[in-house]
Amino acid sequence: MEIKITKTTTPSEMPAEDKLGFGKVFTDHMFIMDYTEGKGWHDPRIVPFGRISLHPASTVLHYGAEIFEGLKAYRRADGGVQLFRPMENIRRMNNSAERMSLPEIPEQDMLEILETFVKLEERFVPKSFGTSLYLRPFTFGNDESLGVHAVKSATFMLIASPSGSYYAEGINPVKIMIESEDVRTVRGGTGYAKCGGNYAASTRAGERAAKKGYSQVLWLDGVERKYIEEVGAMNVMFKIDGEIVTPMLTGSILPGITRKSCIEVLKSLGYKVSERLFSVEELVSALESGKLEEAWGCGTAAVVSPIGKLAYGDKEYEVNGGKIGEVTQKLYDILTGIQWGKIEDKFNWVYKL
Ligand code: PLP
Ligand code: COI
User: Fold this and answer.
1) pTM surpassing 0.90?
2) Among 57, 142, 170, 351, which one is most buried in terms of CB atoms within 10 A?
3) Chain segment 253-300, per-residue pLDDT in tens
4) Domain ranges of the chain
5) How far is the CA of 70 from the centre of ligand 2 (A)?
6) Ligand 1: which of 236, 258, 262 to mutate, most ligand atoms within 8 Å of CB?
7) What spacing in Å lies between the alpha carbon of 289 and ligand 2's midpoint?
8) By alpha-carbon position, which residue is closest to atom 5 of ligand 2?
9) Does the beta carbon of 299 sit less than 6 angstroms from any atom of ligand 2?
10) What is the signed CA dihedral for 253, 98, 146, 189, rounded to 10 degrees?
């Protein structure tokens, strides 16, 4: 793949590391390539970061033909930079593309794009533990016509944002509300794909929860409103009676890479992990009997996020006295340890650049 690079003539300052939020500032460049039916992907290029121009009838603006990924470049203690399981993101992006009738990208090409881009923007990978360069690859359909069909032309882009530690002062347990009105997705729908529309449709419930003082919602399945699916934009796990339970991947749940990694770490530590249907009744009964020992969300942005309180209807339950649990903390320490290169990567997950 020959990537044409046009460097900016006005390089920006790396923002102060203690002031980085999440996804607010961007690096100096962006990667773009175009897709045309018959011709395939073409004109891979890195150009100065800036606005893009779209035809007003562009498919993405009307029918939401968009998919994305989220992964991070981490600064190791020795100064080097590494990615965490990038092939998992690359494969998931292609699965999302297949679902949304958008063009897939050959795995090796995508890896080369990530590697070339991160190397070019290396100075934007922050150095403090917990900070990273968040990478956001995305593809959108841009046929210049209003017909509804699989797109004939698309654009792939990669942008990057130096981001702060998700938690400023350690990981604090959050308050979560079980959502019984809206659903995130349905089986047969797009839940397993990382497509923009899933997120637009989920913000209403998130906003309503925020007004009531909760950080996020716990989603129930869209068919029976019975089985637990995810928490906000994260996968969710519970420790009940010594066993770890996480919703099985039914098609409406995003197959998280952090979820997969948590399961592998937990199994290596000797925990029994059960991926199965887990009903809200079962959760409430575990809360009431005191058998629910820990609950946490997991995803790339936050790594793990302990749940300290859970509300269902007009009842509110405390989990583990509102404090982070032992397993949640252990997972956080091991995953962040591997990601930032502080502990041995015995799973062979990191990809050094
Ligand atoms: N669930 C949803 C809906 C997400 O958007 C994400 C974030 O990417 C996750 C789960 C966690 O996935 P991962 O661990 O791959 O970041
Ligand atoms: C995650 O990384 O856990 C996310 O949910 C990413 C989000 C910004 C879409």
Assistant:
1) yes
2) 142
3) 999 999 999 999 999 999 999 999 999 999 999 999 999 999 999 999
4) 4-163, 174-339
5) 7
6) 258
7) 32
8) 233
9) yes
10) -30
Q: How many CB atoms lie within 10 A of CB 277?
A: 14
Of ligand 2's listed atoms, the one at least distance from the Cα of 233 is 5
Cα 73-79-81 angle, rounded to 5 deg: 20
Kindly give the interhelix angle for 86-99 and 257-268, rounded to the nearest 10 degrees.
Answer: 130
Q: How many residues does the chain have?
A: 353
Does any ligand 2 atom lie closer than 6 A to the CB of residue 196?
Answer: no
| CATH code assigned to 174-339 | 3.20.10.10
In this chain, the answer to whether the domains covering 4-163 and 174-339 adopt an identical fold is no
Torsion angle defined by CA atoms of residues 328, 166, 95 and 154, in that order, rounded to the nearest 10 degrees: 180
Please state, in angstroms and rounded to a whole number, the distance separating the CA atoms of residues 274 and 248.
Answer: 8
The residue assigned the tokens 């190397």 is: 119
Ligand 2 atom 7 nearest Cα: 233
Q: What does CATH list as the number for 4-163?
A: 3.30.470.10
Q: Taking residues 302-328, what's their average pLDDT?
A: 95
Residue nearest to atom 12 of ligand 1 (CA): 256
Tell me how far apart the terminal alpha carbons of the chain are, to the nearest angstrom. 18
In angstroms, the CA 8 to CA 53 distance is: 19
pLDDT for position 80: 95
Burial group, residue 14, by CB count within 10 angstroms (0-12, 13-18, 19+): middle
The token pair that represents 175 in the structure block:
């308050």
pLDDT for residue 51: 97
Residue whose CA is closest, atom 9 of ligand 2? 233
Farthest CA pair distance, the chain = 63
Q: Which residues lie below 8 Å from residue 341, measured CB to CB, with a gap of 6+?
A: 74, 76, 77, 78, 80, 82, 350
CA dihedral of 274, 259, 140, 250, whole degrees rounded to 10 = 10
Ligand 1 centroid to Cα of residue 216, in Å, is 14
Segment (H or E) for 334: helix 326-339
